[in-house]
Input
Amino acid sequence: MLAIKIKKNLPHFTIDVELKENNNIVILFGPSGSGKTTILNCIAGLDNPDEGLIQLNQKTFYQTNRKSVKIQQRKVGYLFQDFALFPHMTVEKNIQYGMKSQELMNRLVQSVGIEHLLKKYPKQISGGEKQRVALARALATEPDILLLDEPFSSLDQETKKECYAELLRLHEMWDIPIIMVTHDYEEAKKLGNHIIHLKKGKIVNREKLHAG
Ligand SMILES: Nc1ncnc2c1ncn2[C@@H]1O[C@H](COP(=O)(O)OP(=O)(O)OP(=O)(O)O)[C@@H](O)[C@H]1O
Output
């Protein structure tokens, strides 16, 4: 169970959101600059709210006036908008970083279709390929929660479909919350149990799609 009730002042508005989610796929949907990435960063521990509470499975990541739990202790898998691959490591080493099992790695490498890229460095591969590597790396850590910031935006339709299927399979297998940002409403409907519509830091609509 993920419980969030946070406020954070930004230059032009205040993020003020409350969420309680079981192990669902939750889509954060909203215009550019509405606070989606900032919310993911607060869950990951890269940024802090000004006040509130962030809890995952009885573990308090953040609470007003208390020392927040460090990012390394949160067991968060995060795919960043800019993919954030380590430039000096090959694709293989990037995925192995924080990896839990070789078997899972082999499976992920195959399902996102990057077997042929393992010995290459990030600067030698395309944007869509980087995105697939970043997705495999986020999943390979077997996290307690998965945060995905536009994880499929640079992929072609065929690869997207395969990655959707793999994400749904892993979600079923691991039963963890997945919080995902996308600007693609069709994608949101295909993958999300819930869609949270954000505008200037506030939740303006909550859609329940699939049971969860
Ligand atoms: N480091 C920062 N310092 C100051 N303001 C910031 C910073 N990061 C983001 N902002 C501002 O906070 C607001 C929310 O940004 P955020 O990146 O969370 O939005 P977003 O919904 O993820 O946008 P996008 O869909 O374009 O990625 C924006 O108005 C942005 O300009």
Notes: The chain has one domain: 2-208. The chain has a mean pLDDT of 92.
